[in-house]
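Q: My labmate handed me this sequence with no annotations at all. I'd like to see what the chain might look like in three dimensions before we decide whether it's worth expressing. Could you predict it?
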Amino acid sequence: MYISYNKVRMHDTDMAGILYFPRQFRFAHDALEDWAESEGLGFNQVFHHENFIFVIVHAEADYLASLQVGNKLEVHLNIERVGTSSFSVVYRIYKEDKELVGTAKTVHVTLDATTRKKIEIPLQFRSILEKHLVR
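A: Here is what I predict for the chain of 135 residues:
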């Protein structure tokens, strides 16, 4: 499990000062970027590689409690599944008082950067993904 830290900012909320629902995916993706960086992988190595790209083909989220400006968050990231060309990431979002406030899941597919055809996950990334696989 990898833990990323974040907080709810004014631009994350609606006019009532409550989390605007798509922003939960921002917290999830921020955690994914932090996790990649913690593994020594820079932005261009993961999200803008010259030979392959990872695209999100499915995303889901459950909102379990209200969040407001200033709430500090812990986002717990786990790799749920690693397939031949795809992998699934699950996220659990907690407030500072350890209350579970949301969950999310993203499914990523590996594509050739030129042809945009599905390819196998490169071996160097597969080993990193499998290291964080929840068994």
